[in-house]
Amino acid sequence: MCEKGDAGDKTVTEAPVDKALLEQLICSPCISVCVVDEPTGFCKGCWRTVDEIAQWPRMMRHQRLEILGRLAERRGATSLTDRGRGPMLAAD
User: Fold this and answer.
1) Alpha-carbon distance 19 to 61, whole Å?
2) Per-residue pLDDT tens for 57-68?
3) pTM of the predicted model as reported, rounded to 2 decimal places
């Protein structure tokens, strides 16, 4: 549902869509690299915590947006010393 489809594909039948529900949709940042870095507690793929991942399906739009904002901060505040090793906190 969150992936973009081929707009040129005319074989798909258009079904009625709840536009209010569609506007609420914010896709998971999961990229299927589901390994938690023990020192930081962040997933090495999506940068969420285990609690954030577990709660995502039940979160409201504003909560998801807040989490997405945190992910950008986390990525900016960390550095990878080795692509295979996951996030490590940058030195202060």
Assistant:
1) 14
2) 999 999 999 999
3) 0.61
